[in-house]
């Protein structure tokens, strides 16, 4: 079994920077946007539709799940599924099944550093896999978003809140879990306090110690 590192990163916690650095150090692929592209190809839908069902979608399924996550015990079945079907969309469960399939294939064939898509849950219990959570205070994550995207404070807050809700709702809806739960991970890092290279060093050291 090749090396596998899953990274769950809160928005503004630097997952898209730290993940590739870890992959390069370990000599394995960094897998992020390749997942929805592969899912789209397998299903035969557009990449836009696949991205709408992605765990970081700020619209489409992401917005639906974000709204649903604020209500107790709500499920997106029945009428919602019928509505989506009437509009000609692929059922959300199909995207989930295909996404899990791609993640498992990555783990079985060559390994890699996988960012998001609840990969820590899809590959839970996989021997040799390291599951990492990157997070940090809201204030520091907002500062990172404002700096990296050159946004106003209000724009950054809206973007952070939308992404946080979408990512949390995806995991809660499909896996009945909280992505911020430290019990899901081998390693939790406040990546807003440590520089990205230092975070990558920690992850690589941990990965080499267990792979």
Describe what this molecule looks like in 3D.
By secondary structure, the protein is α/β, with parallel strands linked by helices. It has one domain: P-loop containing nucleotide triphosphate hydrolases (Rossmann fold). It has helices spanning 15-26, 34-43, 47-52, 61-68, 79-86, 92-108, 119-122, 138-149, 153-175, 196-210; strands at 4-9, 30-31, 112-115, 129-135, 187-190. It is globular, with a radius of gyration of 17 Å.
The H-level CATH homologous superfamily, spelled out, is P-loop containing nucleotide triphosphate hydrolases
Overall mean pLDDT stands at 78
Please indicate the count of domains: 1
What is the name of the CATH class? Alpha Beta
Indicate the structural class: alpha/beta
Task: Please tell me what the overall shape is.
Answer: globular
Give the low-confidence spans: 57-89
Q: What Rg, in angstroms, do the CA atoms define?
A: 17 Å
User: What proportion of the residues is helical, as a percent range?
Assistant: 40-55%
- How large a portion of the residues is in β-strands, by DSSP E? 5-15%
CATH fold annotation: Rossmann fold
Number of helices: 10
Please trace the helix and strand order, writing H or E for each element: EHEHHHHHEHEHHEH
The strands making up the biggest β-sheet line up spatially as 2-3-1-4-5
Named at the architecture level, the CATH assignment is: 3-Layer(aba) Sandwich
Q: How many individual β-strands? A: 5
- Biggest sheet architecture: 5 strands, parallel
The rounded distance between the terminal residues' Cα atoms is: 9 Å
């Amino acid at each position: 079994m090749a090396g596998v590192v899953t990274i769950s990163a809160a928005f503004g916690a630097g997952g898209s920077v730290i993940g590739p650095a870890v992959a390069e150090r370990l000599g394995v692929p960094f897998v992020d946007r390749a997942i929805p592209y592969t899912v789209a190809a397998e299903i035969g839908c557009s990449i836009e539709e696949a991205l709408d069902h992605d765990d970081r979608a700020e619209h489409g399924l992401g917005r639906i799940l974000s709204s649903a996550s604020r209500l107790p015990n709500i499920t997106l079945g029945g009428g919602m599924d019928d509505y989506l079907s009437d509009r000609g969309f692929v059922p959300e469960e199909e995207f989930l099944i295909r996404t899990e399939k791609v993640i498992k294939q990555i783990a079985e064939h060559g390994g890699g550093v996988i960012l998001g898509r609840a990969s820590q849950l899809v590959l839970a219990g996989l021997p040799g896999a390291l599951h990492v959570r990157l997070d940090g205070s809201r204030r520091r994550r907002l500062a990172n978003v404002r700096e990296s995207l050159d946004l106003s404070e209000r724009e950054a807050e809206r973007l952070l809140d939308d992404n946080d809700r979408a990512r949390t709702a995806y995991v809660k809806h499909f896996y009945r879990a909280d992505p911020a739960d430290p019990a899901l991970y081998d390693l939790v890092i406040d990546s807003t306090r440590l520089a990205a290279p230092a975070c990558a060093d920690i992850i690589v050291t941990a990965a080499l110690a267990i792979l």
